[in-house]
Specification:
This protein is mostly helical and about 210 residues long. The chain contains eleven helices and three strands, in the order ααααβααββααααα. It has two domains: about 80 residues, Arc Repressor Mutant, subunit A; about 80 residues, no CATH class. It has a three-stranded antiparallel sheet with strand order 1-3-2. The protein is extended, with a radius of gyration of 23 Å. It starts with a helix and ends in a 16-residue tail after the last helix. The model has no long low-confidence stretch (mean pLDDT about 85).
Amino acid sequence: MPDQSFRMRWVALRNRVISRPAFQSWASRFPLTRPVSRMRAKRLFDIIAGFTYSQTLFACVEGGIVAQLAKGAATSVELGQIARLDAAATARLLRAAAALGIIERVGDDIWMLGEQGVALTGNPGAIAMIRHHHLLYADLADPLGLLRGERNGAGALAGYWPYALGDGSEGGDREAVSPYSALMAASQPMVADQVTHAFRFDRHRRMLDVGGGS
């Protein structure tokens, strides 16, 4: 196809140019291309460091730091006691969280929620999703092995969603689906708020919500 051939040639040319260290160095210094170069460099760094970001957030949520700071300011000693961390580990976690805007230092060893952290307060659905991500982290420890089917079983996340197996075996086991049902119940208000603001429902007389879980 002519369009496909042209696109392949264009992408190949683009990739050859961008991959050159000399071009990258020039683009980072030239005034007109410098903003784009910096934006793309930051985006790439976010992809590289994304796992660290999410793990930092998970530690702050699971360690009780976000919940404690939602009540008001606290010292690093207080936060360390809540998270059951020693002083050095607490300092590392707080610095990492501050760099992401989850918390911020407002005085001499006084911490409060940052803009990203305060967005979590009053949003139990987001907190529930963060807390269940450890299952996904376990599955992604070896992503190629997971995709190749080399790991035993369907994975931790598949076990969290028993219905994904498609064999109907979860129907009579309410205990098996209860964790997923709890997550969906916690996140439903957040999802419903987005849906109701994105679509005009006044043109309809009735609505039917089809849900899963238990």
